[in-house]
Amino acid sequence: MPTQEQRVALVTGATSGIGLSVTRTLAGQGHRVFICARNADNVAKTVKSLQEEGFDVDGTSCDVRSPEDIRGFVQAAVDRYGPVDILVNNAGRTGGGVTATIEDELWHDVISTNLTSVFLMTREVLTTGGMREKNRGRIINIASTAGKQGVVLGVPYSASKHGVVGLTKALGNELGPTGITVNAVCPGYVETPMAQATRQRYAAAYNTTEEAILEKFQAKIPLGRYSTPEEVAGLVGYLVSDTAASITSQALNVCGGLGNF
Ligand SMILES: NC(=O)c1ccc[n+]([C@@H]2O[C@H](COP(=O)([O-])OP(=O)(O)OC[C@H]3O[C@@H](n4cnc5c(N)ncnc54)[C@H](OP(=O)(O)O)[C@@H]3O)[C@@H](O)[C@H]2O)c1
């Protein structure tokens, strides 16, 4: 049984890792969740398996780098479930390297995937999605502790996530009087396919093994371990609740103590 009023939620990048866990959490709270990712087969498989678990979930493919895809995605969500109450901007990519050798293409792709997408999707949800017409809404951006501190060999990623934190604070202040809250959730290290790709990248950069990189990363975390996607989703599940109405313009860490700022 839903524990609170049923809402319409959009989650981007929902076929894997944190986005999938957020979708399961929101659907488990009784909300209707419309999801996307680039790979259409994975979207279809994810929707089918969540529907088989009894959740009210649907979705379509969308590349959050494409304004046209974003328009189509939000319109499809409204056609399917009605105006949007909750937006979780989660889709993202890793990316960096020795800064002097970073190609323009990588820089632009990381900024487009992680930051510009958040602006485009949010604007579309406020307008086509109908959120601006409501007196309540929740926008949650999955940033990173890398959005609060510099990450070595991660200039594009760290810059994009600092941008997401800045966008969150400014938009939260702007929308304060409307009842729409805007917050960033900042994971530290979370065990997902992206985390694995990140370890591979650092192992290559430091000419060492992925196991050595894992040990090095874990040693930086006071809890001594990665967080789980479910632990990140748990905070999202709280932020969408009615009780969280006065939490806005914040960037909240879920990181085992990695960042304490
Ligand atoms: N894992 C961590 O340690 C960690 C830490 C801090 C922050 N984060 C942030 O958390 C978010 C999720 O990360 P994750 O670790 O769960 O990643 P993940 O397991 O790699 O999943 C990424 C999801 O995003 C989708 N996606 C990627 N690019 C997309 C695009 N251009 N358009 C639409 N969907 C796209 C992927 O599907 P397709 O490939 O089919 O598009 C997939 O569903 C990201 O914003 C990431 O920066 C992760």
UniProtKB/TrEMBL annotation:
BP-aspect Gene Ontology terms: monocarboxylic acid metabolic process
Record-linked Pfam families: adh_short
PROSITE patterns for the chain: ADH_SHORT
Sorted UniProt keywords: Oxidoreductase
Organism, scientific name: Labedaea rhizosphaerae
Similarity remark: Belongs to the short-chain dehydrogenases/reductases (SDR) family.
Molecular-function GO terms, alphabetical: oxidoreductase activity
NCBIfam families given in the database record: PRK12826.1-2 (NF009466)
InterPro entries (alphabetical): NAD(P)-bd_dom_sf, Sc_DH/Rdtase_CS, SDR, SDR_fam
Superkingdom assignment: Bacteria
Lineage: Bacteria, Bacillati, Actinomycetota, Actinomycetes, Pseudonocardiales
Record-linked Gene3D superfamilies: NAD(P)-binding Rossmann-like Domain
Name of protein: Ketoreductase
